[in-house]
Amino acid sequence: MASIPDWVVDQGRSSRPATLKDVAGRAGVSVTTVARVLHDNGYVSGATKDLVEAALAESGYQINAVAQRLRTQRSAEIGHILHSISPNPFFAGVALGSEQAAADYGCTVLIHNTHGDPDIERAGVEALLQRRVEAILFTTVTDERNVLLAVAAGVPVVQVERVTETATHAVTVDNYRGAFDATEHLLLLGHRRIACLGVNPNSGASNANAPHRRVVEQERLSGYIDALLRFGLPVDDGLVILGESYYDLAAVCTSVRRWLDAPADRRPTAIFATCDIIAAGILQEAYARKLRVPGDLSLVGFDDTYASYLTPPLTTVRQPMAELGRVAVRLAMASRTDAAATTHPQTERLTTQLIVRASTAPPA
Amino acid sequence: MASIPDWVVDQGRSSRPATLKDVAGRAGVSVTTVARVLHDNGYVSGATKDLVEAALAESGYQINAVAQRLRTQRSAEIGHILHSISPNPFFAGVALGSEQAAADYGCTVLIHNTHGDPDIERAGVEALLQRRVEAILFTTVTDERNVLLAVAAGVPVVQVERVTETATHAVTVDNYRGAFDATEHLLLLGHRRIACLGVNPNSGASNANAPHRRVVEQERLSGYIDALLRFGLPVDDGLVILGESYYDLAAVCTSVRRWLDAPADRRPTAIFATCDIIAAGILQEAYARKLRVPGDLSLVGFDDTYASYLTPPLTTVRQPMAELGRVAVRLAMASRTDAAATTHPQTERLTTQLIVRASTAPPA
DNA sequence: GCTCGTTCTGGCATCGATACCACGCCCGCT
DNA sequence: AGCGGGCGTGGTATCGATGCCAGAACGAGC
Questions:
Q1: Which residue of A has its CA nearest to B321?
Q2: How confident is residue B202, by pLDDT bands cut at 50, 70 and 90?
Q3: Closest by CA position to B325, among listed A91, A85, A124
Q4: How far apart are CA B61 and CA A95, in angstroms?
Q5: What is the pLDDT of residues B299-331, one digit of tens each?
Q6: Does B30 contact strand C, using a CB cutoff of 7 Å?
Q7: Which of A35, A68, A128, A196 falls 20 to 30 Å from A290 in CA-CA distance?
Q8: Residue in chain A nearest B14 by alpha carbon
Q9: How far A287 CA lies from chain B's nearest CA (Å)?
Q10: What SS3 state is found at B322?
């Protein structure tokens, strides 16, 4: 007498998930036939098709993606390295966009939060390479060598809101234009003492491995300066404060306090902050001094993350965060097939949009 | 003459990544030996170890995690289903915590944003099951059946900040206590007309598949009511507005406007909002009416997401977001091994913390 | 009657890493 | 001298899905 087939054992809730073999046994056909029904390709007679479909349903079969990937050599995954999805919503916004576009390619996105730690970043890149991801996006880079690691492995790399010497694809917004628009908006309102709070484009120059957003910062600063010049105004060094990073709020805050504590005739009448979070901090400082925004002080932010939730709602330069993520994924996936794209890195440039809300008005 | 071995072909940047076999060929040993060096187990002589390590380095070998997982039957992945990591930072905070704890188990977290769409949610759960994730966390649920889907598959499930009849592990904060503390804080300051803005615990009752955070909402409402009763105050139905969901701001806003437009002697002197985002909206409404916070109106939020960025900084009930995620992962991983845990769902309850900032003060 | 093409089905090697088993060797102990 | 055990190494089945190839059955056309 024949021995009891494997598939007779109870496929209960706690046992291993069913395999193609299990289903084949249950239906009394070969695994090949089950696979054909599953993917609806090849020739299968109506009768056996019904038989197999019943067996599939009974066993609660779910395809094993791990085995499938090994066999087909397609991981269907995209890695995304970034600072942290919280608390700065900028990263979460980009991540969300990348997820949307990845879905169009049947891919899922693996997010790696580095928290600015180069070791975590390196471990993240290596983990992604081991998983054979189809592309890697960098929305922050702490150590430039980690980008090279990915490039050397032959994986398509796209840097988001970041421009460096490393030859990879990139997608950024027109930061110069964004900063110019913001400053011009204040100038057109009649402001003449306009301060700028940003991040030093030259910071990290001593550390060759951490050129944090340098070009982006330079562009924003240039946009501010050029707008002033266009209006025939000199750049007052005392009205420009550049921190070490976007997360270095402490330094920025003390500078702002000095400005706000100055007598009205020497105080800036408007401030352009290159990040909504910094702008939020300034709002609080102004509030503590009973300075009215926009009455005594106009304020423009950057990013449009927190801006709409603030009081008053903040005029800001909107970055198309989700679109940055989407374009990054498309660029990466296109370069997989297009041979020319691999050798000639491409840079996509999106436009920002000045969102005028209630934090800006003509000076008193 | 022997044919040219495979590994002689250039392992250049654009070719397939090296396999154990490639490395073995290069070093002139067996794959078994290479594996032994790689994992530093078993016996390997110093000489061959050096040989193999050189070969590993030369070929830029990165282990193939896909093959490894198929063979070891461990996906080292945890799925996390949530509404969306942006713009509400609550989810991002929980996700971050889950990622941290997952790392302790050598796991990575796969985030699925459902955007409140039951079809996306279902597809997400199925994708996770197909990847054979070791556990699934639900920080939002749109369709209860999707939880059952995961449970039926035998995967450990943990619901975060959510209590339902479905018998799964859960981790929540003490919402009753949080709401009680917030209301009590206002009462102790001397407020007597305290309004409450929340989400209707009975909403979705008509739709059996979408009992959105019902218990959590009930607890928050009860905490508010009980604090009033403790002070011998009646509950004024006109001062309680419950929206359909946290994302249904429109309805909430119109109600708030009605309150704020009322004459001062009928206007609430304080509002307890069960979400920072709602509180931010109230701040803006108050500002537009030139009502001073906390002078004319005190305000308490919930979550501590946006709270510290607002003007004035918002008094709020802090939820330990990251800790929620961490505990959820620990609960899930523990239940994998502990048989008793599977049958007896466990609920962990974390404590909230009232963070007093500048949006609350005694009534005028 | 033979060939050819279409329909239907099963066998099996393969993706890459792992783990078990087997074999050979050298050394020390009885 | 013989034997057991610690070393050092290689062979190979396996995880589960895929896709090529083989082959059988049947009808149509010459």
A1: A86
A2: confident
A3: A85
A4: 29
A5: 999 999 999 999 999 999 999 999 999 999 999
A6: no
A7: A196
A8: A154
A9: 7
A10: helix
Instruction: Give the β-pairing of B108-113 and A194-199.
Output: unpaired
CA angle A315, A317, A322 (to 5 degrees): 125
Per mean pLDDT, which of A134-143, A158-167, A240-249 is the most reliable?
A: A134-143
Proximity of residue B31 CB to strand C below 7 A: yes
Angle at A108 between CA A102 and CA A114, to 5 degrees: 100
Within 7 Å: CB of A64 and strand D? yes
Partner residue opposite A131 with nearest CB, options B65, B310, B313: B65
CB of B35 lies under 7 Å from some atom of strand C = yes
pLDDT digits (tens, 9 = 90+) for B80-121: 999 999 888 999 999 999 999 999 999 999 999 999 999 999
Q: B57: how many CB neighbours lie within 10 A of its CB?
A: 10
The single-letter code of the amino acid at A38 is L
Residue among A99, A130, A287 minimizing CB distance to B312:
A287
State whether A89 and B89 contact (CB < 8 Å): yes
Length A74 CA → C14 C1' (Å) = 15
As ranges, strand C nucleotides with an atom below 7 A of a protein CB are 7-12, 14-20
Q: What is the pLDDT of residue B13?
A: 43
Inter-chain touch B85–A63, beta carbons under 8 Å: no
Helical pair A46-59 and A31-39, crossing angle rounded to 10 deg: 90
Q: Do residues B327 and B171 make contact, with C-beta atoms less than 8 angstroms apart?
A: yes
Measured in degrees and rounded to the nearest 5, phi and psi for residue A80 equal -135, 110
Write out chain A in H/E/C secondary structure: CCCCCHHHCCCCCCCCCCCHHHHHHHHCCCHHHHHHHHHCCCCCCHHHHHHHHHHHHHHCCCCCHHHHHHHHCCCCEEEEEECCCCCCHHHHHHHHHHHHHHHHCCCEEEEEECCCCHHHHHHHHHHHHHCCCCEEEECCCCCHHHHHHHHHCCCCEEEECCCCCCCCEEEEECHHHHHHHHHHHHHHCCCCCEEEEEECCCCCCCCCCCCCCHHHHHHHHHHHHHHHHHCCCCCCHHHEEEECCCCCHHHHHHHHHHHHHCCCCCCCCEEEECCHHHHHHHHHHHHHCCCCCCCCCEEEEEECCCHHHCCCCCEEEECCHHHHHHHHHHHHHHHHHCHHHHHCCCEEEECCEEECCCCCCCCC
Residue A146 to residue A168: CA distance in whole angstroms: 13
- Which of A17, A65, A86 is closest, CB to CB, to B93? A86
Residues 279-338 of B with CB within 7 A of strand D: none
Chain A residue with CA closest to B314: the answer is: A284
Q: Measuring from the CA of residue A42 to each C1', which nucleotide is nearest? A: C8
Query: Does residue A331 contact residue A338 with C-beta atoms inside 8 Å?
Result: no
Instruction: With H, G, I as helix, E, B as strand and everything else as coil, classify residue B246.
Output: coil
Phi-psi region of A60 (alpha: psi -120 to 50; beta: other; left: phi over 0): left
